[in-house]
Amino acid sequence: MTEMESRETGIDALLRRTMAAQIPHLPAGFDERVVRNVGRKPGRGWRPLDRSSRLLLAGYGFVSMVTSAIVMRSQGLGWLAISCTTLTPLVLAVTRPLWRAARTQGPHAAS
Amino acid sequence: MESDSELVARMQSGDQEAFTELVCRHSARVFRLAVSVLGKEFVPEAEDVAQEVFLKAHHAIASYRGQGEFSSWIYRIAFNHAVNVKSRVRFRRPHADETLLHGIATPRPGPERQAETAQRDRALAECIQTLPEVYQSALRLYYWLGAPVGETAELLGVPENTVKSYLRRARQLLEGMLRERGYSCD
Q: CA-to-CA distance for B95 and B38, rounded, in angstroms?
């Protein structure tokens, strides 16, 4: 046996010994729980925001909208252009979740 | 027995029983793969990963076009998701000390020798953590979970020869790292 082979055997035996431990298994009823939860959770890791996060986000949105409007007005832009640029993201933010919700009501939606 | 692709087709047309059947078929293996990535300290997290993988698969099934096996698709989701979760939980205190778990199989000679062995085992566990994710997963599947090379290859989505070379390379790297730290593998 070459030195390299003997080293390989040594580390192999060590790994077998040190990594031996109880093998975990899924608890009984796991499959049923998954099937049950499919109907509850929206996809892509989406979680509804709590009240304070919603307030913080709304405040940030409002302040940035007003600031943007002031800055754009000082640059001489008309109110129509200002309304379009500030309100478009807002419209998208509101309609996207609605569109998503409508899409998940399709044939693949969980019962 | 219906094939996975038949069940997927039924699921795509809104049949929930087909999804239940797919979960029953693949949950144990998805869990084994998740636990092989996360390690023995994070078994509850692996269970969460297994659940989230099926939820993701359920939501993404409409975009699954049947290119390749369903099992390969779901194992890939599981591996990637487990790696993401691992990067979040690795700095958290583990549920069980790995050395304690190792202790189950460690023989008990004199206290000095025992301390030395425990130190080397700890060093080995640390070295394993530094290996690339796919090597770690292959090692845990093969040495801890007792998965044969064929199953390891299937779960990792690579040919059997690639798994053999992952294991060989991992052993060589570990042996070198232990030697650098002053431990022998005997």
A: 12
